[in-house]
Write a structure and sequence with these properties.
The complex is a heterotrimer of chains A (295), B (262) and C (382). Chain A is of the alpha/beta class and 295 residues long. In chain A, 28% of the residues lie in helices and 30% in strands. The radius of gyration of chain A is 21 Å and the shape is elongated. The chains are: A alpha/beta (295), B alpha/beta (262), C alpha+beta (382). At the A-B interface, helix 2, helix 3, strand 6, strand 8 and strand 9 of A face helix 1, helix 3, helix 4, strand 7 and strand 8 of B.
Chain lengths: 295, 262, 382
C-alpha cells in the first residue's frame, strides 16, 4: 500500500502529530511525507488541489493528515475531491483484508466506534493517538507547491484574540487546567493560570464560562468546543455537565476540585478534591512547584 | 455582498439531543434510538443563528434550511422555521446515503435555489465527520471556510472570520461560498411562541434522492462496531475539611508517584 | 375535554421549558437581590410569552387559557417569582384591558405589556380590604376632563416594573346597601403626577417578585384613564380574579412538579444504609402520593382553563383548582424537603426556596378559606 502523509507546521516546527503518523504508518506500507508550500497560510482550496495532484501522480492508496484544525479541514476536502472513503479524527488504524479498520469517537465522544474504511481512503489521525517511539528519526517532508493566486478566496488579515498569549495549544497539550463557573468570575483566572504555568499546561474552560464571556470561545472544552485527551486534565469548579464530559473523558488522568460532593465530575475523576477552590488552589500550585523542582 | 435580498441556505442535520445519554443498540454497531429526543445538531444551530443575525440587521434577507435524512427530520426543519427561518426543504434519504451522497443532493438543491451563501455546522454531533460541508463546496466548485464565527459584508463579497489558535483569520471571498460554522455571536435563539405557530402553517416540500439525480453508493467508511467509552470512576476522593496545605501536598504526591503524570 | 393537552399546546409549553432551563444559574442571585433582571423580562417579550393571552388582532399570540396554564407551569417550575410576574402581567392586567378596554386603550396599552419593557400591575388590595373589595377606600374625583385619585394600595405585584397600574378607586360616596357602588377601574401610569411607590415588601418567599405599595396623593390622570364604565369596576376586578386563580393553580403545579423531580433525582443518588434511599418504602410512598396529587391538581386546572376557553362558567372550577393545587404545592414541597433530609433545609439545595415560594400560593388571589367560600356558595346557591 502506498501512503501519502501531509505534514503540518506550527511556529516553524513540524507538529508532533506529523512525526507520530510518519512513524506508525510505516507498518501499513510505503510512506511519503509531503508538506504544502507556496502559500503563507493554509488555504482550503489550494492546499487540497496540491495534495490531490500529488496523490494522483504518486499513485497513493491512502492520504493521512493530523486531525488538527487545518488537517481535518484539508482531509475532508481532499476526500471529496478524490471521491474516496473518509474517516476523521481516528484514534487508531490498522489494515485488514485490504481495507483500513479505524477507531474513532462518535456522538461527541459518547461512543467509540470501529469503522471499515475501504481503500483508497483519506484519514485524519488524532494528535497523541499514536505514541512516538523514542529515538525516531526526524521527518523530512518533500515540498509540494500550492498556488492560491487565482483563488477567489483570499486571506485578508489576522485578528488576534486579546487575551490569548503564548500558552500551549489546547488540542495538543499534555496537561490542561480547566475552569468552570465555580471560579466565580474572570478576575479569578489568575489563580488558574498560576497553576497552568507551574504545570506548563494549556488552559481550558467550561461552556458556561465561555458563554458568559469570561474566557474566549477557543478555550471551551466539550461537545461544542474542543475534544481533548491530555495525560492530565484538572477541572476546577466544573460540575461536569454531560456536554463537558464528552470533551475530556478520554483524558488519561482526571483531577477534579469542587465544593459540591455530588458534582458529576467526581464520577469520572481519578482524584477528587471536595472543598473550597480558593483555599486549595494556591496551596496546590505551591505543592506542584515543589514537586517539579524536586523531580 | 449585495446591500439587500441576500439569500442564505443553511444545511442542518437532526441528531440525538446533546443531553441524551447515548447507548449502544443490541446490534452492537448503532445507537439505541428508542425514546430519545432529537434536535438540530449544535453547530447547525449556530449556523442558523449566524444567518438569522444577518436577517435581524437586514429584514430583506431570506434564510432557507435544508436537511437530508429520514422523515423524522421534518421536526428539525420545523424547529428552524420556528426560530425564524423562511422556508425549508426535506430531502428523504436513509442510512445508505453517505456524506458524499448527501453533499451531491444538497448541491442539486443549491443549483435550484441559488443562494448567495451556504452555511453548515462544522460537523454533525452524531458521526462527527465534518465531511458534508467541504464535500458540498467541492461538488459546487466553491471555496469553503471552516471554523466560521462571523460573516461581514465587504464590497461585492464577504469577509469570513475563521477561529484558530490565538485569534481569527479573516478571509475575503466573492459569493458564492460555503461556511462551516463553529460559533455564532450570540447563543442560538429559542423559537418564539408566535414563531412556533407560524412554522406550523408553513408547507415543507419533500424531495427524494432520485429526483435530485443522486444514487447513493459513493465510497464511505462503515461502522462495524460501537462500544461505550471505557468506564471511569472509583477515583480517590480527598476531603478538604482540615489542613488544605497537607491535602495539596498529598495530591501533588499522588500525581507524581502514583499516576506519574507530574 | 382531553385529559392531556394537545400537541401544539405541549410544543408551546416545551419551548418555554427549554428557554427557562437556562435561567437556573441566575436565580439565587436575583432572589437575594429581590429583583427580576430586566433582560429576562425583555427576553420574555421576544419569546412572545408576555402577549400569549392577547388576541392576534391586538398583536398577541391569542393563545388559549390551557396554553396560558401550561406556560405558567413551566415558568413556575423554573422560577416561581418570574411566573408570578408574568401571571399578573399577562393574565389579569392584559385580560382586563382586552375585555374592557376601548380600541384606543388596547392599541395604546397592550404593546407595553408585550414588549418586555416592564410588567403591568393590578391594584385592588388596600390595608383594610383584600378579597372583600367592597370596603375599598381609594377615591376618584373629576377634575376638568380628567380625574384626581387618592388612597394607598398595598401588596401590589410588579409595581416596581409596571408602566401602568390598573387601580380601583371609588367615584362618589360609599353606599351601605350597594357596597360596590362607584368602584371604578383606572389606568394609572406610574410616572403620573402624585403617584409614588412605597418600599418593596420583604417577603418570606417569591423574593425576586416585587411587591410594593402604590401611593396616590392627588394623582392626576386623563379622561382616557377609565377602564370600562364608571361604577362598574368591581365586575372587572371579579372577572380578572377568576382567571387569575387558574394562573395561581398553574404556578402551584409548576412548583410541585419541580420539587418532585428534584426529590426523585436526589433519592436515586443519595445512599443510606448501603442503598439508594429511593429503595425505601417511606420515600417511595411519599413520592407516589405527591405525584398523584400533582396530576389531580393539573387536571383540575386544565378543566377550569378548558371551560373558560369555551365561554362556559368556570368560577367554581377555578376556585377548586386554585384551592387544591396550592395546598398540594405546600404539602409536596414539605414532602420533598423531607426526602432531602438536612440538605433540604440548606439554601444551596433549591427545595428550601420552592417551599417558601409555595407558601404564598394558598394566600394570594384569595386564601384557601375564600376559595372554600366561593365553592360552597356555588354549591348551595341553587
Amino acid at each position: 500500500m502506498k501512503i501519502l502523509i501531509v505534514a503540518e507546521r506550527r511556529d516553524g516546527e513540524l507538529r508532533r502529530v506529523t512525526a507520530e503518523i510518519a512513524a506508525k504508518a510505516k507498518a501499513f506500507g510505503d510512506t511519503e511525507v509531503v508538506e504544502v508550500t507556496g502559500t503563507d497560510r493554509y488555504h482550503p482550496v489550494a492546499h487540497a488541489n496540491a495534495v490531490v495532484a500529488r496523490a494522483k501522480s504518486s499513485g497513493a492508496d491512502v492520504v493521512l493528515t493530523g486531525a488538527t484544525l487545518n488537517g481535518r479541514d484539508l482531509a475532508a476536502r481532499v476526500a471529496a475531491k478524490l471521491g474516496w472513503a473518509y474517516a476523521a479524527d481516528c484514534t487508531d488504524a490498522s489494515v485488514k483484508d485490504g481495507a483500513f479498520q479505524v477507531k474513532r469517537p462518535m456522538y461527541a465522544g459518547k461512543v467509540r466506534a470501529t469503522l471499515r474504511v475501504p481503500t483508497p481512503a483519506v484519514l485524519s489521525i488524532r494528535p497523541g493517538a499514536w505514541t512516538l517511539p523514542a529515538g525516531t528519526e526526524a521527518v523530512k517532508p518533500a515540498a509540494i507547491a500550492a498556488d492560491a493566486s487565482a483563488e477567489k478566496l483570499k486571506f485578508a488579515r489576522f485578528e488576534p484574540t486579546a487575551t490569548s498569549g503564548k500558552r500551549v495549544s489546547l488540542s495538543e497539550a499534555r496537561v490542561i487546567v480547566s475552569g468552570g463557573r465555580g471560579l466565580k468570575g474572570p478576575e479569578n483566572w489568575k489563580m488558574l493560570e498560576d497553576l497552568a504555568d507551574a504545570l506548563g499546561a494549556a488552559t481550558g474552560a467550561s461552556r458556561a464560562v465561555t458563554d458568559a464571556g469570561w474566557r474566549p470561545n477557543e478555550e471551551q472544552v466539550g461537545q461544542t468546543g474542543k475534544t481533548v485527551t491530555p495525560d492530565l486534565y484538572i477541572a476546577l469548579g466544573i460540575s461536569g455537565a454531560i456536554q463537558h464530559l464528552a470533551g475530556m473523558t478520554s483524558s488519561k488522568v482526571i483531577v477534579a476540585v469542587n465544593k459540591d460532593p455530588d458534582a458529576d465530575i467526581f464520577k469520572i475523576a481519578d482524584y477528587g478534591v471536595v472543598g473550597d477552590l480558593f483555599e486549595f488552589l494556591p496551596a496546590f500550585t505551591e505543592a506542584v512547584k515543589k514537586t517539579k523542582a524536586g523531580a | 455582498m449585495a446591500a439587500s435580498d441576500v439569500k442564505f441556505l443553511v444545511c442542518l442535520k437532526q441528531v440525538p439531543d446533546s443531553t441524551v445519554r447515548v447507548k449502544v443498540a443490541a446490534d452492537g454497531k448503532s445507537i439505541a434510538t428508542d425514546g430519545i429526543t432529537w434536535s438540530i445538531s449544535p453547530y447547525d444551530e449556530y449556523a442558523i443563528e449566524l444567518a438569522l443575525e444577518h436577517k435581524d440587521g437586514d429584514p430583506s434577507t431570506t434564510v432557507s434550511v435544508v436537511t437530508v435524512g429520514p422523515a423524522r427530520s421534518r421536526d428539525a426543519l420545523r424547529q428552524a422555521l420556528a426560530m425564524g427561518c423562511d422556508d425549508a426543504t426535506l430531502v428523504i434519504a436513509d442510512d445508505k446515503a453517505g456524506g458524499l451522497d448527501v453533499a451531491k443532493a444538497i448541491a442539486a438543491i443549491v443549483k435550484e435555489a441559488k443562494p448567495d451563501l451556504v452555511l453548515c455546522g462544522k460537523q454533525a454531533s452524531d458521526d462527527d465527520q465534518g465531511l458534508v460541508g467541504p464535500a458540498l463546496a467541492e461538488a459546487l466548485g466553491w471555496p469553503h471556510v471552516g471554523m466560521l464565527t462571523k460573516i461581514a459584508a465587504a464590497g461585492d463579497g464577504v469577509e469570513l472570520w475563521r477561529e484558530i489558535e490565538g485569534g481569527h483569520e479573516v478571509w475575503s471571498s466573492t459569493l458564492a461560498v460555503v461556511g462551516l460554522v463553529h460559533k455564532s455571536a450570540k447563543e442560538p435563539r429559542y423559537p418564539s411562541l408566535p414563531g412556533i405557530m407560524k412554522a406550523k402553517k408553513k408547507e415543507i416540500p419533500e424531495k427524494d434522492l432520485a429526483a435530485l439525480g443522486v444514487t447513493p453508493g459513493a465510497p464511505r467508511a462503515e461502522v462495524i462496531a460501537m462500544e461505550p467509552p471505557p468506564q471511569r470512576g472509583g477515583g480517590k476522593i480527598l476531603k478538604a475539611d482540615g489542613d488544605v496545605k497537607a491535602l495539596a501536598v498529598e495530591l501533588a504526591r499522588l500525581l507524581h508517584e502514583e499516576a506519574k503524570v507530574l | 375535554m382531553r385529559p392531556e393537552a394537545g400537541q401544539t399546546e405541549r410544543e408551546l409549553a416545551g419551548a418555554v421549558r427549554d428557554w427557562s432551563a437556562e435561567l437556573a444559574p441566575r436565580i439565587a442571585d436575583a432572589e437575594r437581590q429581590g429583583a427580576l433582571p430586566a433582560d429576562v423580562i425583555h427576553d420574555l417579550g421576544e419569546l412572545g410569552v408576555l402577549g400569549m393571552g392577547i388576541p392576534e388582532s391586538d398583536g398577541g399570540l391569542g393563545a388559549s387559557t390551557v396554553v396560558f396554564a401550561l406556560v405558567l407551569e413551566e415558568l413556575a417550575a423554573a422560577w416561581p417569582s418570574l411566573a408570578v410576574g408574568v401571571s399578573v402581567n399577562s393574565g389579569i392586567v392584559a385580560g382586563s384591558i382586552v375585555r374592557h378596554g376601548t380600541r384606543e386603550q388596547r392599541a395604546r396599552l397592550l404593546p407595553r405589556l408585550m414588549d418586555g419593557s416592564g410588567l403591568g400591575a393590578f391594584a385592588l388590595t388596600e390595608a383594610t380590604s383584600g378579597s372583600d373589595a367592597a370596603s375599598l377606600r381609594a377615591t376618584a374625583h373629576r377634575d376638568g376632563d380628567g380625574w384626581v385619585l387618592n388612597g394607598r394600595k398595598q401588596f401590589i405585584t410588579n409595581a416596581k416594573y409596571a408602566p401602568f397600574v390598573i387601580t380601583f378607586a371609588r367615584v362618589g360616596a360609599a353606599e351601605e346597601q350597594r357596597p360596590h357602588a362607584g368602584v371604578t377601574a383606572f389606568i394609572v401610569p406610574t410616572d403620573a403626577p402624585g403617584v409614588s411607590l412605597g418600599p418593596s415588601e420583604q417577603k418570606m418567599g417569591l423574593r425576586a417578585s416585587d411587591t410594593s405599595a402604590l401611593v396616590l396623593e392627588d394623582a392626576q390622570v386623563g379622561a382616557d384613564a377609565v377602564l370600562g364604565e364608571i361604577g362598574r369596576g368591581f365586575g372587572i376586578a371579579l372577572a380578572g380574579l377568576d382567571g387569575g386563580r387558574i394562573g395561581i393553580a398553574a404556578q402551584s403545579i409548576g412548583i410541585a412538579r419541580a420539587v418532585i423531580e428534584r426529590a426523585i433525582a436526589y433519592a436515586r443518588e443519595r445512599r443510606q444504609f448501603g442503598t439508594p434511599i429511593v429503595e425505601f418504602e417511606a420515600i417511595r410512598f411519599s413520592l407516589a402520593r405527591a405525584r398523584t396529587d400533582l396530576d389531580a391538581a393539573r387536571m383540575l386546572a386544565l378543566r377550569a382553563a378548558w371551560l373558560r376557553d369555551r365561554g362556559c362558567p368556570f368560577t367554581r372550577e377555578a376556585s377548586m383548582a386554585k384551592l387544591f393545587a396550592s395546598e398540594t404545592a405546600q404539602r409536596v414541597t414539605y414532602q420533598a424537603l423531607q426526602v432531602f433530609g438536612g440538605y433540604g433545609y440548606m439554601r444551596e439545595y433549591e427545595v428550601e426556596r420552592y417551599a417558601r415560594d409555595a407558601r404564598a400560593t394558598t394566600l394570594y388571589e384569595g386564601t384557601s378559606e375564600v376559595q372554600r367560600m366561593v365553592i360552597a356558595r356555588s354549591l348551595v346557591a341553587a
